[in-house]
Amino acid sequence: MSNKKTKKSKKTNGTKKSTNSKGKKGATKKNPKKNIIPVLTKETYRGLYFVISVLIIILSVLQMGFVGRFFDSLFKYLFGSFSYILYIIIVATPIYYIMNKKIKTPAIVVTLLVLIDFLFQLILVGNAESTYISFTEIYNGKVLTYGGGLISYYPVKFLIYLLSYYGSLLVVISAIITSIFLYFNINHRTLVLRLKHQIVDAFDKNEYVDEEHDECLEFDEEIIDDYNYVDTKKENSNEQRYNNIKDKDLVVDIREFKEEPGEELVQRVTRKQAKSKEVKSVDVVEESLNEGVSEESYDNYQLPPITLLNSPVKKQTITKGDVVEKSKILQSTFNNFGIEVKIVKAIVGPSITQFQILPTPGTKVSKIVNLSNDIALNLAAKDVRIEAPIPGKSLIGIEIPNTVNELVTMKEVFVNDEDNSPLSVALGKDVSGESIFTRIDKTPHLLIAGSTGSGKSVCVNTIITSILLKNKPDKVKLIMIDPKMVELSIYDGIPHLLTSVVTDPIKAADVLHKVVLEMENRYREFARARVRNMEGYNKIAAKDPDYKELPYIVVIIDELADLMMVSSKEVEESIARIAQKARAAGIHMIIATQRPSVDVITGVIKTNIPSRIAFAVSSSIDSRTILDKSGAETLLGKGDMLYLSADSSKPVRIQGAFLSDEEVEKVVDYVKSQSEAQYDPNMTPSEVTSQGSGSSSADDIDPLYKEVLLFIAKTQKASASLLQRRFKIGYNRAARIIDMLEEDGYIGPVDGSKPRKVFLEKEFAEDYE
């Protein structure tokens, strides 16, 4: 026995020594073992909950075994007939969480479910002697209806005792409606005002209804009422109207910003996109577009969801006190210069505050306009723009920059789009905070100009993203020309493109020429179908299989100045022809440039493109080049724009919607995942046009060019003297051929006394022969 003990002790000692001898190495080996132990994450718990809940509900509904009958009886005992709805909720909840969505205000959700259970109890009161059934009766299957369950039985019974049956029913329904309003953040006043305005518009469409939003902080409005009411029988003079305005507190219109756009707006956009998915898509590519392109059905194509865009994060940028203080300074400025005016209203916009003033009768508008620099000095403002008069009102608007600008996001503007047109695009918000949209088919072409960093490229991205969010690839086709190579390259590969993004200015001129040919082909088709425009042609194509529906084509040129420098004659001619004739053919252009000079935006281009957007520029001369009037030089940059539509004589000031590069990438990735790009070979630029404008063009190629090319490939030498001796030609001709070879990249440049490098292999000549 003693020997055995000593052996054991030796073994233990040996093990101890071995562990000690390992020292730190042994310790370091144990740490990884601890990390091997799996850690249950939230996703794992949600998955387990989903599996268990589905298993229990299947057992309960099918009453499989003792466990299934027990759970089924328990649910019906506690919740009655409401248990069937409860089954759906139990399964839907983990699915909702697995999709990484959180239930906002869960307390309201639980309250709503309990109230619905109460409603079940009340509805079943008249159908059964008792709405509470014992657990034993349910388990034994002696009853067919299960009432409202135990949970709601006693509360409802007490409620009926207090309020009677119908009173209890009214209270429960009212509580359910209130819970829904609280959960979806619906304001009752906004809902009532919308219903009111819809009713008024239905009876009298010509009557102007001043819609007061719930987001506005309303103050004394009698001054506005006194101003708007003018009895033409009693007050026929401007002086009487001016005196009619009472000296009361300034009306300040400030919007209360929200972090999310209205839930009902997001749901409306989602429903609109869902409808467009259900509509069967027809292959709408013209015969000239289909040559060499395999037709692809877009029936399963899904539009990008609005949730890909970032939600706005808002904060109040200005208070009523700040506005009132500025109005006092403004009033004192006019008094100092002997101009009597009354400030009627102040509207706080995203980036500016507009003060609406009414001058004394007989006051020249030019006097007020000339005070813009003095007003900016007294208010310590960067720039002040004066709109005289405000369109539709006998008021003058003075626009003063806010201390802090509000960020207007693409999402909050896009959700307000009620136009079903495929070419309706978001621009931003005006001074009053209303979302502004434009239809490209009504413009019918758009010129965008502004200095670097003013928001021009963001505006172009906003327009393109609006098109991608609303249209399948067979409805709208795009052609993008980007000489800067960095602005539109992100869209390369989307299925809406007819050709890859063109970056070569010479190729761009060729593409524009092919757009002109496409326009003429469409007009020939219209003449054959005896219609005047694309809309009429598509109506016939929808009924007659001999015709194919045509998509809209939008040509987007990001930098016009670079194209005009390389091939101004060809580019200007093609743009002029497209702008003059392409509207009825469904072809539209969006041209952007950061150099608004007369040699870029020529008179021919301006005449045929009436719709224009001007961002911040350096001088009034540039502003007049874009808009034919000054004003853009006073803009603040960062998306602040003036939009002049084709049907308006005065530009509208808009704070452009902001779209980050991350949002653009999300939308583009989603679109690319739906379908691959299929470029049209008829719109692909020819390779010949990409060559330089020197002597290697197709018309000026020397007859000996090919022979010289093979000769230098064989000999691996290239020089003018060598060609003179070999081909017995003069020096000028030999030097010109050498220049052509260098220009085309077959030989290298002169490097001192060293021979030129030849980039052709000997095998080239052998293969050619």
Automatic annotation (TrEMBL):
Q: Which InterPro entries match?
A: AAA+_ATPase, FtsK/SpoIIIE/SftA, FtsK_alpha, FtsK_dom, Ftsk_gamma, P-loop_NTPase, WH-like_DNA-bd_sf, WH_DNA-bd_sf
Answer whether the UniProt record assigns the keyword Transmembrane helix to this protein. yes
Q: Which GO terms describe its biological process?
A: chromosome segregation
> Which ranges are annotated Basic residues under compositional bias?
1-14
Main subcellular location: membrane
List compositional bias (Polar residues) regions by residue number.
Answer: 675-689
Q: Name the positions where ATP binds.
A: 450-457
The UniProt transmembrane annotation reads 48-71, 77-99, 106-125, 158-184
Q: Which GO terms describe its cellular component?
A: membrane
Domain called FtsK: residue spans? 433-624
Q: Does the keyword GTP-binding apply?
A: no
Under the heading Pfam families, the entry gives: FtsK_alpha, FtsK_gamma, FtsK_SpoIIIE
Q: What is this protein called?
A: DNA translocase FtsK
**Lineage in the entry?**
Bacteria, Bacillati, Bacillota, Bacilli, Bacillales
